[in-house]
Structure formats: structure tokens, C-alpha cells
């Protein structure tokens, strides 16, 4: 029978984590085991640093999220922030708050999922902290580097730019619908559930947009298409118009959403946690953007335009009329 964390103690837990990640690349000059990590950037690059929280019953539910999937997702949602700057991930720091009654198996499975993501995206765990907590609390900080071409922020959108989104918006939100309704084993929801539990950051897309200087602005899609575009519009001090007729939905998405009594378009506009990328690019770059999508074998849609005017987002239906939205995405303290 697996031991409880209270039987192991902090030193034994830290030692087991240190052994698991000892041979990961890239190596730090000093990693787990000391008071601080010692790391060096590549010559000519700049650090990118992002942090994120995942809290039980707020960001995940252990009733339908396995420890292995939680470990994978804890790292990849942070790597999505680096993708949104065109960066390259290097190192990660992990703060864990855990109930003392959790089993050692939970921890082993969590780090198995984390290690899977860390190997895939070459991100080494080099430090962090552990604490007893009334619920599972996860704080992740990732350190990355810019390419020689620099980084892309949210603040560069210009009038005349096209607005692009990768992937198919709404998939993760549909997966959460299946999970929250106890339909984990429904074969019709397998694809959407996987998208929600095991998001994959679009690092290569972000890096190529930076390397080839294709985008004026860039961010990841985490809280809903309309809400995140509003954030981009605000930072860029620009107006954005998107056309619902240009939003491409995944095959089978509409039927699956309606089966659960949900409007597929509303899910695509306001559903969160897709961890795709949204960006703006000038017309002279559109052909190169489309070529990049083919090269990466990644769905990419131009869904709107950047306009001059008051910062904000207008959603136009197929007749060109403004579509009112009662909710545009997930906001903490409001949603």
C-alpha cells in the first residue's frame, strides 16, 4: 500500500523529485537541492519568465483529472505563455501545496506526467517548494529565452492587420462539458476531453512567427476567444472585428455540442483553455502565414481584422450585424 505524504516527510519527497530530474536537459549550473538555482542564458538572448497557478476546484477537479494528466497540464499551460511570446522554454520551478493524507502514488503519477511534458518540450525542473495545504495547490514558474529575432507582445496590432487563430476554438470547453457531466467514458467526447486534459502548447508556431517576423502581435488563447482578443485590443489600443462566418469549427464539434445542449458558436467564442495562439499579421505576410500553417500541418484561420478606433472587439454574424454576447470568456472573481 502506498505511503501517505505525512509518513514520508519533506526531505524524502524532495530527494525523490531531485533523483527523477537529475539527468534532464538543459542542465543548470545549480538546480534542485540548493537555496536557489543558478542558470545562464544563451549569448544574445533575453529571459522570458512566466508564472501560473492551478488550484483544486478552481482550475481542476480530481474527480475527473488524473494526477498524471494534472502533472502534464501544470507544465504545458505555462509553456503556452512562452509560445505566446515566440520564446524557447528552458527551466521550470514548481511550488506544491499538498494535503498530508495524499498517497505517494499521487505524487509519483503527478511527476510522471510532468516529466513527460518536460522531456517533450525540453524544460528542466530546477527548483521549487513544498508545503502542506488543505487542497492541491500548484504554482509554476517557467524561464525561457528569446530567439535572436526577439519576442512578440500583445501590443503591436495595427489597423489593417488580419486576425488569426490556430487550431479550432472551443474544443477544450466542450471537453470540460463532457467531464463535468460525468461523461468521461462517452466515446463521442474522447477528442474534446483529451484537448481539455492534455493541452499542447504551440511553441513551434510562436517561434516561427518570431523567427520569420510574420506577426505584429501575439498571445495565447486561454480564457476565451473574445475575452482574450479584448485584452490584445486594449494593449494594442486598437479595435478588432471578427466574423463568425470565418471561425472554423472542428469536424463533429457542432453535433457534439448540440447533443449536450450547448451552442457550438458560443462555445467557440467564449470557451477557455484551448491554449492555441491568436495573432495579427499585415496583408503582405498572409501568404507566408498560410505557408507556415501548411508546413507545421496546423489549422490556422483568419477570422477578422484590426481597425482604427476605440479599443474593443466586435463580433459580426454572417449578415454583418453585431452579435451581442452576455459572456465573453472566463474571468477570475467574476466567472
Give your account of this protein's structure.
- By secondary structure, the protein is an alpha+beta fold.
- 34% of the residues lie in helices and 21% in strands.
- It has helices at residues 5-8, 10-20, 67-83, 104-120, 171-180, 190-197, 203-211, 225-236, 253-259, 264-270, 286-296, and strands spanning 47-55, 88-98, 124-132, 137-145, 162-166, 217-221, 239-243, 276-281, 300-307, 312-316.
- Strands 6-8-5-9-7-10 form a six-stranded mixed β-sheet, with helices on both faces. A four-stranded mixed β-sheet has the order 1-4-2-3, with helices on one face.
- The chain is globular.
- β2 (88-98), α4 (104-120) and β3 form a beta-alpha-beta unit.
- It folds into two domains: 5-145, PurM-like, N-terminal domain (60s Ribosomal Protein L30, Chain: A), CATH 3.30.1330; 162-316, Phosphoribosyl-aminoimidazole Synthetase, Chain A, domain 2 (Alpha-Beta Complex).
- α5 packs across α6 (190-197).
- It is built from eleven helices and ten strands.
- The longest helix is centred in the first third of the chain and has 17 residues, at 67-83.
Largest β sheet strand count, sense and barrel closure: 6 strands, mixed
Tell me the strand order in the biggest sheet.
Answer: 6-8-5-9-7-10
Number of strands: 10
Tell me the count of domains: 2
Helix percentage: 25-40%
Mean pLDDT: 90
What is the 3D shape? Answer: globular
Features:
2 domains; Phosphoribosyl-aminoimidazole Synthetase, Chain A, domain 2; 10 strands; six-stranded mixed beta sheet; 11 helices; alpha+beta; 60s Ribosomal Protein L30, Chain: A
Amino acid at each position: 500500500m502506498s505511503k501517505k505524504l505525512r509518513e514520508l516527510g519533506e526531505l524524502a519527497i524532495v530527494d525523490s523529485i531531485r533523483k527523477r530530474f537529475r539527468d534532464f536537459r538543459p542542465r543548470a549550473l545549480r538546480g534542485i537541492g540548493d537555496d536557489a538555482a543558478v542558470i545562464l542564458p544563451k549569448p544574445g538572448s533575453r529571459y522570458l519568465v512566466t508564472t501560473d497557478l492551478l488550484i483544486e476546484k478552481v482550475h481542476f477537479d480530481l474527480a475527473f483529472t488524473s494526477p498524471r494528466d494534472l502533472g502534464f497540464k501544470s507544465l504545458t499551460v505555462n509553456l503556452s505563455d512562452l509560445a505566446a511570446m515566440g520564446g524557447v522554454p528552458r527551466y521550470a520551478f514548481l511550488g506544491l501545496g499538498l494535503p498530508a493524507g495524499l498517497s505517494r502514488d499521487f505524487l509519483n503519477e503527478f511527476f510522471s506526467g510532468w516529466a513527460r511534458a518536460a522531456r517533450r518540450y525540453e524544460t528542466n525542473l530546477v527548483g521549487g517548494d513544498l508545503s502542506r495545504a488543505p487542497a492541491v495547490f500548484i504554482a509554476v514558474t517557467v524561464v525561457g529565452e528569446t530567439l535572436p529575432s526577439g519576442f512578440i507582445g500583445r501590443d503591436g496590432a495595427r489597423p489593417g492587420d488580419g486576425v488569426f487563430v490556430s487550431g479550432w476554438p472551443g474544443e477544450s470547453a466542450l471537453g470540460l462539458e463532457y467531464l463535468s457531466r460525468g461523461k468521461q467514458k462517452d466515446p463521442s467526447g474522447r477528442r474534446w476531453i483529451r484537448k481539455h486534459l492534455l493541452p499542447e502548447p504551440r511553441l513551434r508556431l510562436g517561434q516561427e512567427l518570431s523567427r520569420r517576423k510574420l506577426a505584429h502581435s501575439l498571445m495565447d488563447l486561454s480564457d476565451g476567444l473574445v475575452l482574450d482578443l479584448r485584452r490584445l485590443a486594449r494593449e494594442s489600443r486598437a479595435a478588432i472585428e471578427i466574423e463568425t462566418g470565418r471561425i472554423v469549427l472542428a469536424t463533429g464539434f457542432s453535433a457534439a455540442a448540440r447533443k449536450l445542449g450547448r451552442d457550438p458558436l458560443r462555445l467557440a467564442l467564449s470557451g477557455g483553455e484551448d491554449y492555441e495562439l491568436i495573432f495579427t499579421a499585415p496583408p503582405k505576410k498572409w501568404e507566408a502565414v498560410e505557408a507556415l500553417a501548411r508546413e507545421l500541418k496546423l489549422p490556422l484561420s483568419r477570422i477578422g481584422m484590426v481597425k482604427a478606433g476605440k479599443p474593443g472587439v466586435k463580433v459580426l454574424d454572417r449578415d454583418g450585424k453585431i452579435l451581442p454576447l452576455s459572456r465573453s470568456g472566463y474571468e477570475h472573481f467574476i466567472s
